[in-house]
């Protein structure tokens, strides 16, 4: 007899508590402080839901949940890079548009080859 099980537990956002509360530890984009719930799915259908314990940070860009204590601070006007016209193109990553040291061969933020 062969039994094939398709399912598992995943996390879903239940309610956003604060938009832009921090930055993602994986991709660096804005992350929101959310209440979440865990969902048991069997054959891709939700069967059981239960609330998560503490609020978590959630990145909508890379779909990552992580604890607020690991969050990077939110970007302010002072922490954002200057506009592209004020910095030579050779010092910016062509993929993520962040400042990169001229002797780097790979971008330290997104990992792409320069």
Order of helices and strands: EEEEE
How many structural domains? 2
Which whole number gives the mean pLDDT?
81
Largest sheet: 5 strands, antiparallel
Number of contiguous helices: 0
Tell me which oligomeric state these chains represent: single chain
Ends apart, CA distance between termini? 54 Å
Shape: flat
Pick out the low-confidence regions. Answer: none
| Beta-strand share of residues | 35-45%
Specify Rg, calculated over alpha carbons.
19 Å
Given helix and strand content, the structural type is mainly beta
Count all strands and give the number. 5
Molecular structure report:
It comes from Morus notabilis. InterPro entries: Double_zinc_ribbon, Zinc_ribbon_15. This is Zinc-ribbon 15 domain-containing protein. Strands 1, 2, 3, 4 and 5 form a five-stranded antiparallel beta sheet that branches. A hairpin with a 6-residue loop joins strand 1 and strand 2. The chain has two domains: 67 residues, no CATH class; 34 residues, no CATH class. The model has no long low-confidence stretch (mean pLDDT 81). It is mainly beta and 114 residues long. It has no helices and five strands.
């Amino acid at each position: 007899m062969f039994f094939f099980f398709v399912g598992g537990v995943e996390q879903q956002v239940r309610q956003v508590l604060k938009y832009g509360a921090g930055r993602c530890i994986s991709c660096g984009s804005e992350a929101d402080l959310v209440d979440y719930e865990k969902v048991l799915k069997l054959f891709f259908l939700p069967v059981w839901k239960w609330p998560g314990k503490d609020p978590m940070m959630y990145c909508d860009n890379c779909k990552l949940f992580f604890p607020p204590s690991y969050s990077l601070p939110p970007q302010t006007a002072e922490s954002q890079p200057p506009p592209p016209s004020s910095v030579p193109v050779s010092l910016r990553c062509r993929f993520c548009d962040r400042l990169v040291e001229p002797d780097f061969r790979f971008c330290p933020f997104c990992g792409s080859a320069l």
